[in-house]
Amino acid sequence: MPENHDQPSGAEPSTERFRTELERSTGGAQPESSVEQTTRIPLVQADLEAGTRPNLPANGHKPELPKPEPESDAERTAQIAALPADFPALPIGDTQAIPRVPAEPSGWSGALPSASQPTEPDKKRRSLIRAGVAAGAAVGALTLLYVGDLALTSGTVPRGTVVAGVDIGGLDEAAAETQLREKLGPGVNEPVELRVGDRATTINPEQAGLQMDQQAGSQPLNPFTRIASLFTTHDVAPVSHGDREQLVQALEQIRPQLDRAPTEGIIRFEDAKPVAVDPVTGQAIDMQAATDEVLAHWAEDGAVRLPYTEQPVSTTREGVQRALTEVAQPAVAAPVTVRGEGKNAVLSPETIGAALRFEPDGAGGLKSSVDLPTAIGGVEPQLADTIKRSKDAEIVMAGGAPVVRPSVDGIGVDWNKSFERIDEVLRRPQDRTVQAIYVHEPAKFTTDQANQMGIREVVGEFTTNGFEAASGVNIRRVAEQVNGAIIKPGETFSLNGHTGPRGIAQGYVESGIIENGRPGRAVGGGITTLYNASYFAGMQNVEHKAHSYYISRYPAGREATVFQGPTGASIIDVKFKNVAKSGIMITTRWTSSSITVTLWGTKQFDVTSQTGERTNPTEPQEKVVPPGEPCSPSKGTPGFSVNDTRTTKDLSTGKVRTETQHTVYNPQPIIHCGAPPPPPG
Description:
The termini are far apart. The strands form 16 sheets. This protein has a 4-stranded antiparallel sheet. Strands 35, 36, 38 and 39 form a 4-stranded antiparallel sheet that branches. Helix 7 packs across helix 8. The chain is flat. The model is unreliable at 1-67 and 87-115 (pLDDT under 50). It folds into 4 domains: 9-118, no CATH class; 155-313, no CATH class; 317-449, Ubiquitin-like (UB roll), CATH 3.10.20; 455-673, no CATH class. It is α+β, with helices and mostly antiparallel strands.
């Protein structure tokens, strides 16, 4: 084969590509060395199969290839894609070692193969390769950006995060918490408004155990989400924390301000003008759901609306209006005339309005009625001249003895019958009159009944002396209240029940007492006197209690005390039953220091008393009242036990009854004021 030192013009592009690929594979011009040294170049399959070598210049030297300028990866990729079809494609990174051979005198023999034109499939394949390489490069770049962004934002709040209007995106957790405290701290400590329907009130977050925190979440891994965060924001609701039990207690305290009892529709009167009041449904907080709602929304703007249950009413607005037009307005349209015997009375529209009562009828409306005491009070005084009051018989003291004042029968109006058809009259536009029906009214306690009581002589009496001035006031007051009291046969008399509360408002005063050496005040006086009068009248003892300490002015074992609570409730009482055949009347006489109680009736019992010896003495204890405290020194008195025996003889039957009462008195302590006395000797 003749030597060919010049390349065919058609092979130039292929040769240029070859040079480019050679330098890219070897990193530049190859050094001259021994034949054992190899150079990695892509194999040219056609040359190997022909057994030829590439032609070199005649001088035997390697051709001087121009050193290419640095190229981009994309340009190099494009050049590789433009290789001729006969340039074999190898896997990326594969090379073939070609041993160097001794040059002939005339240089390299053989010639580079001629380039052939690429086919259509080759073009498509090269286009796909170019697109894949470009896409791979783009994906790689984006991957690098994604990984870098993750690294840079690690430990920070996701971009675009807004908590309750405060932008904390991109801040680390500590800085975000500080920012929220500065911006939201004052707001979350303000009172929280709560609403239930049309009612509202507030609670204090701290007192209700409410606190606020934020949970912005971690960095998102979704690349699309991270790209979107560069241009958008997202709101994160604050996370509320609270002591549920403490919050429930706070809600219970303000519950009366939010709950509303159901109110039925009604008709009220302004003077004589009726006004319809529409019904209002009730509302009651659902405490469980309300607690959840406050925990979830208390830190947000605006009031927290609490869930509640509705409490229905039975009336309707239409039903109330119907009662207004059909009943109330006609009722007060004109007065009602009440015809008496020789005189008439007028029931005015104002009195009618005050007497009318309305209540639900169960069908959405209202039913009416007339309050008789109110209506009677409006007309009865006008008919006073036609009415004669009855008068009960009385037993009074006259000339030192009981006398009977006779009873008087009366004439009155049976108002129930008179107003039996008042509802019908009130609906009429005309003929608005009613007739007063008069009836005979006998006395409740007649003269005969009073005489049959047999109250004519003293059956029991007792006197107590030696009271202080304050006790004298109370003695006089209790004597006034029981004076003239009558006890029918078989009835039981109760002092607390007869007088009711005995306090400052009832004219009593506090008198001085000594309790454990300390001065005190109490209301009392005259009780033992009443007990002893009933004792000697032969009355049956139902209830009594002796004093804890013996008081020398009272007979030992035959005395009593009473006590009422602050509201007047009976705690210790004196009660006795009238077991005589006659009635019993109590009369009282008093001075500033003494009281006498007398029971009057018909003498039936002969009563004697015997007081036993004092037994079981108990020595008093010594007590010291600290200096500066009120103190009344006392030598003390021993305690003891005593029996009192009452013997009662029934004069009408001769039967004798014996009763023994055992009483134990506590010792009164020895009181030292300030310090105990020094020991003797």
